[in-house]
Amino acid sequence: MLKSCIRWAGVAALSCAVALGGAVSADEHANWPSSAKVGTASQGGTYFIYGAGWAGLVDEATGVNMSAEVTGGPAQNMVLVHQGQLEFGMTTMGPAFEGWNGKLQVARGLETRNVRAMFPMYQTPMQVVALQRSGIDSVSDLDGKRVGVGPRGGTASMFWPRFFEDLGLDVRVRFGGAADQVGQVQDGILDAFAFAAGVPISAFSQIEAQQPVNIFSLNEEEIAQMVENHPVSRIVIPGGTYRTVEEDQATVALWNFAIANKDMPESLVYEIMKTVLDNNDRMMNVHRSARETLPENMEHNNFMWFHPGAVRYYQEKGIEVPEDLIPPEYEG
């Protein structure tokens, strides 16, 4: 019902859009794009599921035709949103920091300062899956093995090779989409798949349902070393997240944020913030990782300017936005 009514022309469409978002004036709506793209990552990963989910909610609430785009992941999304090739995207704070400072491997020297932060998504834990019959059940077992690390520009492809190097492991890294690489593990083309995504990682659940697997990550000594060397923090994945993993599993993780190009209208971004953050129950229906999609988790961004529409939302919620994270174009 709501989906159809927001397609009506004129003010009637705006009144219909209030169901999920908030009231917007006709003048504000006139500045909105008729359609917009959200950069996600490869199919089979959490980014694509989560991104398509919040894009659908925003489409429903605002009438803007939102679509989820398959991309190389967080690093590429920083570049594409900065360049205006995507209106919105999602990124992990490690690649985002490198992009903000012009140190991305996919775009050396390009400071992606046209990107603005919107809302916190969830933490991205680092995990590995291998077939049980391979005998691989620890990161040290990956020495000399063929290991998929997801698409180039993704969080996994940036950090797992660095982890392997720090640990002195000779790993033959392979790049590709999550769904493709988990299939290659099943077919014996890859020995393991080391990934990073909100849990449960759909590609891991997929292979777990089809063959006996080992799902594991770094040990405590390795975790301490990675926390010291990289912008990651220790996290514990609860037992039962995957059907065959009964015990809690410690690993490292990075936070993820939704992002927008700085030229997106303030009123549209404000409505996106309300749609996503004021409807956490619906976001939880998209993916369980959305339990961390909460306004107060905006504190996990400490370097990227927030979009003016996001600043407005946080201030209305009584959440102080640090002065150094308010963008130059903010007029509030």
Describe this structure in words.
Strand 1 (35-39), helix 4 and strand 2 (65-69) form a beta-alpha-beta unit. Strands 1, 2, 3, 4, 5, 6, 7, 8, 9 and 10 form a 10-stranded mixed β-sheet that branches. It contains 13 helices and 10 strands. It has helices at residues 2-5, 11-16, 26-30, 46-62, 74-83, 93-100, 155-166, 178-186, 202-208, 220-229, 266-277, 280-286, 308-316; strands spanning 35-39, 65-69, 88-92, 115-131, 146-148, 172-174, 192-196, 213-216, 233-237, 249-261. It has 332 residues and is an alpha/beta fold. The chain is globular, with a radius of gyration of 20 Å.
N-to-C SSE string, H for helix and E for strand:
HHHEHEHEHEEHEHEHEHEEHHH
Residue stretches low in confidence (pLDDT < 50, at least 5 long) are 1-19
- By DSSP (H or I, 4+ residues per run), the number of helices equals 13
Share in helix: 25-40%
CATH homology superfamily name of the largest domain: Periplasmic binding protein-like II
Using DSSP, what is the number of strands? Answer: 10
Structurally, the number of domains stands at 2
CATH topology of the largest domain: D-Maltodextrin-Binding Protein, domain 2
Mean of residue pLDDT?
Answer: 91
The class by helix and strand makeup works out as alpha/beta
Keywords: Signal
Pfam families: NMT1_3
Protein name: TRAP transporter solute receptor, TAXI family
Signal peptide: 1-26
Which key features would you list for this structure?
332 residues; alpha/beta; 10-stranded mixed β-sheet; 10 strands; globular; disordered N terminus; signal
